[in-house]
Amino acid sequence: MQRIGAHQSNRTSASELDWGMILVLILLMLIGIYSLYFAILNGGKGASPIRAVIMQLLYWVVGAFMIAFIMRFDAFQLWRLAPVAYGLGIVLLIGVLFFYNRALAASAGAKSWIAFGPVSLQPSEVVKPAFILMLSKVVANHNRLYPEHTVDSDWLLIGKMVGVFLPVALLIALQNDLGTLLVFIAMLGGITIVSGITWRILGPILIAAGTFGSLMLFLVTSAIGRSILGAFGFQAYQFARIDAWLHPGQDTSDTGYQTYQNLKAIGSGQFWGSGFGNMRVFVPVRESDMIFSVVGESFGFVGGAFLIAVYFLLLYLMIKATFKARNSFYAYIATGVVVMVLFHVFENIGMNIGLLPLTGIPLPFISQGGSSLLSNMIGVGLIMSMSYQQQSRTFNESNDFSL
């Protein structure tokens, strides 16, 4: 049988690039560089803003090369790459449990980083695109084998998806990184919803998930519940984040101080902001999870709304690419990437304005950190490869997918 993309011309015209998505990325890069520079300048405790900006720009350059590289992969090559990338991701997640950075673990409470001299890698971030690829392959292959959805076949599909999810979830749980685990749960949920599973199964699952979430909210807000959760491994700093979320002004001496100062900074920006680079409120470690406060304080409600609009434009372009996908494998990949970015934006901005508790989730393309930036750039590369490849190649789902 003819392989996916075989015997097709491989055009490389610049007209095949998604320039809309490229321009949005450039705009996010400029906003991110500005925010990072002034975040460190106004609270970096002696850190060099110039050095931080240079490092972040280097990650952007690496990310741009990765996008250009990934765009060369057609659907068949991504199909073959999925289990390899997933397997390497599992190895990285196992490795970080033994070789994690002790200093970062002590300050952040999670064993999530491996240090290479001055550079740190967070394996759970770079595993996200690999997880999306593997989950998309499992769903696409199952639906090829079982074109008619039945209750039995759908439960089998759920079992396969859980089989992909559980090793990653267990290893991230051992890192004590609840925030990142929530992202993987969101990606699993997004791809599950579009997988074609009957609502006779999805309905009860969603109701059960909502009930479980309500139960967890009750447990974390009651003394008895916290004692129960503590027996299952929940840490004091996680409860402190909940308290800081529910009562940001009650205790500003420890965990609540960052949340309180962050809200004060965003509030001080009012409608138009305090002006370019004019920040008067100190926010600890603003350059990572709290970087949205730089935009909020500098440019007020208008600046924050503009940044959210830019994210919506990026998500629109991604969803547009999803609808152009000529096969379900591409569609599942695009869904996973869209959910990944959307959940990061929703959770980060939500916790910055006090709607959600702190979870340590960075703001995509804005927060300091090479691992998160590269993960998102890989995701964008996967989306852009769809438009690029589909203008010159074909992907026939009736072909032989076996490896």
TrEMBL record:
Keyword Transmembrane attached: yes
Keywords: Cell shape, Membrane, Transmembrane, Transmembrane helix
Location relative to the cell: Membrane
Chain segments annotated as transmembrane: 19-40, 52-71, 83-101, 155-174, 180-199, 206-229, 298-317, 329-346, 366-384
Membrane topology designation: Multi-pass membrane protein
PANTHER family: CELL CYCLE PROTEIN, PEPTIDOGLYCAN GLYCOSYLTRANSFERASE MRDB
Name of this chain's protein: FtsW/RodA/SpoVE family cell cycle protein
Source species of the chain: Fructobacillus papyrifericola
Organism taxonomic ancestry: Bacteria, Bacillati, Bacillota, Bacilli, Lactobacillales
